[in-house]
Design a protein that fits this description.
This protein is mainly beta. The protein has a single domain (2-314), classed as Beta Barrel (Porin). Helices cover 7% and strands 57% of the residues. The protein has three helices and 19 strands. It has helices at 2-15, 34-38, 52-55; strands at 22-23, 66-75, 79-88, 91-104, 113-114, 120-121, 123-138, 153-168, 173-193, 196-206, 209-213, 219-220, 224-233, 237-244, 248-260, 263-273, 279-288, 291-299, 306-314. The strands form three sheets. Strands 2-3-4-7-8-9-10-13-14-15-16-17-18-19 form a 14-stranded antiparallel beta barrel. Strands 1-12 form a two-stranded parallel sheet. Strands 5-6 form a two-stranded antiparallel ribbon. A hairpin with a 5-residue loop joins strand 16 (263-273) and strand 17. The longest helix has 14 residues, at 2-15. The termini are far apart.
Length: 315
């Protein structure tokens, strides 16, 4: 029943049947990347690996070489989540797939669901698939810009395609929604500010241009704003914080040790987020030459916790 309730909640939220506005809920509202998740998804101002594409594509401007990461997991013990992200220089691409599987369809009175023709609906599901690509560049390197902008300021742009197969809990019928959205972003590397070093400030204009198909006019990608900052405090701990108009406050911290026996790096992480109540996360990462393995555990206030495990490669 908990599993059934969760998928119904997703469908109701996605269709907005509980309010006047109907913002679409997609895989971009789940989060991506084990390291960002272990930091409470406070990654907009940090954005220093391939998941910059997901959280702040302007961060791609600061990357070099090639990177790739793949993640497969059982989300909340009930669903399938798959993501693959990669970047080469300042260009990135990724895909995300989320499938909750089939669950029994029951009404609020615990009776079998029936469609408009009176046919019994045994089960239903929810799945979402997304493709995204992005680019980042230091603004001083762009034509006709030069010294007109501060040094260290980067511009990013992301386009994303999303497809949703869902269920209308009012009409008891399946429906499909797809759409495109465009997200511009900025990242400003300030360097040292007082006792703090590696200060970065990030800004993402979420779904500034969005268009959904197969949905009512009021069902569209919600326009939002996400602001983030990251600092290296006391030359020991990286602290990052995000505030989003769409999903609240995020806070993360990462402590990294170098050259521990066979390990190049060992990172310890913790975070919190307030998207749907207070969620807490912990995690660690280990690096061996070109391979990095990351683990995170996300505590959820209402559902079972979720384990995240990924492997990343540098080339």
């Amino acid at each position: 029943m908990r599993r059934a309730f969760f998928i119904v909640a997703i469908a109701i939220t996605a269709l907005g049947v509980m309010g006047q506005s109907r913002p679409l809920v997609t895989v971009f509202d789940i989060g991506a990347g084990v390291r960002p998740v272990s930091l409470g998804e406070a990654f907009t101002g940090l954005a220093d690996d391939e998941y910059a594409l997901f959280y702040n594509p302007a961060g791609l401007a600061t990357l070099t070489g090639g990177r790739a990461s793949i993640l497969y997991q059982s989300h909340f013990g009930a669903s399938t989540y798959l993501s693959a992200f990669g970047s080469f220089g300042s260009i990135g691409g990724g895909l995300i797939f989320f499938d909750f599987g089939q669950v029994p369809c029951l009404t609020a009175q615990n009776q079998p669901c029936k469609d408009a023709q009176g046919k019994t609906i045994e089960s239903f599901g929810y799945s979402s698939f997304a493709l995204t690509a992005g680019w980042g560049a230091m603004m001083r390197s762009l034509p006709f810009v030069g010294t007109l902008v501060p040094e260290g300021l980067a511009l990013g742009l992301r386009i994303k395609f999303v497809s949703i197969t869902s269920f209308d809990p009012v009409k008891f019928q399946s429906l499909g929604i797809s759409g495109f959205a465009l997200d511009p972003s900025f990242l400003w590397e300030l360097g040292a500010v007082g006792p703090l070093s590696r200060v970065r400030v990030g800004l993402v204009l979420e779904n500034l241009l969005g268009l959904a198909f197969g949905a009512a006019a009021e069902e569209n990608f919600p326009i939002g704003l996400r602001l983030g900052v990251s600092v290296l405090a006391l030359s020991l701990v990286t602290v990052s914080a995000d505030f989003s108009l769409n999903d609240g406050f995020h806070l993360g911290a990462e402590y990294t040790l170098s050259k521990l026996g066979p390990l190049d790096k060992l990172s310890l992480r913790a975070g919190l987020l307030t998207r749907t109540g207070l969620g807490l996360s912990v995690g660690l990462g280990v690096s061996f030459s070109t391979l990095q393995v990351d683990y995170a555990f996300l505590f959820h206030p209402d559902f079972e916790g979720s384990h995240w495990l990924s492997a990343s490669f540098r080339f």
